[in-house]
Amino acid sequence: MKSMSMARRAGLAAAGIMAAGVVVLGGSAMADAATATPSPSASSSTAAGSGKTGSNDTAVTGDELAKVTAAMKAKDSAVTVTSVRKDPDGSYDVLGTKAGARVMYDVSADLATFNQSTGRGGGKGHGGGSNDTPVTGDELAKVTAAVKAKDSTITVTSVGKDPDGSYDVHGTKAGATVKYDLSADLATFTQHTHAAGK
Predict the structure, then answer these.
(1) Is residue 169 helix, strand or coil?
(2) pLDDT of the chain along its 198 residues, tens only?
(3) Alpha-carbon distance 195 to 192, whole Å?
(4) How far is the C-alpha of 54 from the C-alpha of 72, rounded, in Å?
(5) By the 8 A CB rule, do 60 and 86 touch?
(6) Which three-class secondary structure string do you get for 48-77?
(7) At 106, phi and psi to the nearest 5?
(8) For residues 111 and 108, what is the distance between their CA atoms, to the nearest angstrom?
């Protein structure tokens, strides 16, 4: 009898140890699951942040470019349009020159509303953009050649010269609008991202 009672106690003790082990293992698995859950949300927040690269504009060409240019001319015939970019919301950024100074207009998708901009964001000039002078002729060819030597996939659409002798180079690359600050000696290139708030 005594030996049966001891065996029963030993069996109960073993069962208790096993149950405790299951609880510990189960708790550990649950803890692992709990620590694993934040990782999808972390990656989704990274994806959301990475979406803000800024260069979502597309270059406008062909009939659409002609239509926007005509609307701009109807609004102000003194503006010479040098390039047009389309925002994701369907509105337009119209870059051009007027009386020798660089200008930019925000134009609504229906081409009815025109707002002159003084340089919103890093890709749209820096506040003193109106002091730039348009670059043409041999100087334009020289700047364009320097940009092409740096990156042959860039198509230069316009170049403005700052009072300090440096250049603002606007262009397109793989369908996206790009802008470079180029030093007066044509040696240093700094690319701007369109949506950077500088």
Answers:
(1) strand
(2) 555 555 555 555 555 555 444 444 444 444 444 444 444 444 433 333 333 344 578 888 999 999 999 999 999 898 999 999 998 899 999 988 888 888 899 899 999 998 887 654 333 343 334 467 888 888 888 999 998 898 888 888 888 888 788 888 888 888 788 888 888 898 888 876 543 333
(3) 9
(4) 25
(5) yes
(6) HHHCCCCCCCEECCHHHHHHHHHHHHHHCC
(7) -90, 125
(8) 5
